[in-house]
Amino acid sequence: GNHLNVNDNPRTGDYSVGLYQINLYGTLRNGRPSEEWLKVAENNIQYASKMFDSQGWYPWSCKYVLGM
Hints:
By secondary structure, the protein is mostly helical. The protein is 40% helix and 6% strand. The protein has helices at 27-30, 35-38, 41-55, 62-65, and strands spanning 16-17, 22-23. Strands 1-2 form a two-stranded antiparallel ribbon. The radius of gyration is 12 Å and the shape is globular.
């Protein structure tokens, strides 16, 4: 989203990690893997694939640019 980037976001305290920019906001609450696990490229790809399989492009803000 417009408020998310690879750096800490002072407004929300969240940020995204890895090749597929998995957002860590609410990690413990939503069951996402740890930051360290997501920093491993293979893990990030695996988790992004699961997200895509269950939600399509919804989790990624690029869906708007792609017209999805």
